[in-house]
Amino acid sequence: MKRCFALVLLALSLMLLTIACGTEQEAFQLVVCGPYLDEAAVTEYGDTLVPEDSSWEEEQNLSFEVMALSMGSEKLDPMIYSTSVMKLTVMSAAGDIDLWISDLENAASFGRNGAFCDLSQLCTEEELAPYTQRLITFQLTDEEGNLLEEETPPCGIELTSMEQFSDIYGDKPCGVFISSTSFHTETAKEALLSIAAGEAL
Fold first, then answer.
1. pLDDT for 22 beyond 80
2. 165 Cβ partners below 8 Å, 6+ apart?
3. Angle, helix 78-93 to helix 104-112, in steps of 10 degrees
4. Which of 33, 130, 170, 184 makes a 20 to 30 Å CA pair with 19?
5. How far apart, in whole angstroms, are the C-alpha atoms of residue 2 and residue 23?
6. For strand 156-158 and strand 135-136, is the pairing parallel, antiparallel, or unpaired?
């Protein structure tokens, strides 16, 4: 009898675990990266973007996550920098990044390699109209790193002048980008436009 009761308990536990796993929300990940970041400032911005009383996660059936990554300097911290680039490359390839907020210097190398969506293909002219002067393109380079005349399509929106990012980047140019490997492209587009407008989700 005890054995049967134990088996029933085990079966119920497995059923509950299966149900719990089945209803777990997928992650929607915003990666904030730059040479040297104040992680507390990044966390504070994330809390402002999706405040506790926001219904955004429930409406999207996604769990909002923000990750701060201090990449260091290619010249001053080559080991930290190369490790950070590799980490972002692997995460991007796996579809683990939905949105990027980055200083433009680091974003350029990823943008030139197709890490960001072409906003002109993803957004309507009306949606991009308020940001015409803030659209970001990157000049392409050849195999030796020499700049070419050709540029990438518009792949980001500049955030440099916005107060929300002064504690994170100071006056360093920065922007927001949609990952070309995101599994939640429409949601990422809505989030990008909200971030560019300085609005919470």
1. no
2. 45, 101, 159, 174
3. 50
4. 184
5. 32
6. antiparallel
pTM, entire model: 0.86
Sheet holding 174-178, edge to edge: 62-70, 26-34, 99-103, 174-178, 156-158, 135-136
| 68-91: burial string, b at 16+ Cβ within 10 Å, e else | bbbbbebeebeeebeebbeebeeb
Tokens at 35, concatenated: 């040479």
Q: 77-112: per-residue pLDDT in tens?
A: 999 999 999 999 999 999 999 999 999 999 999 999
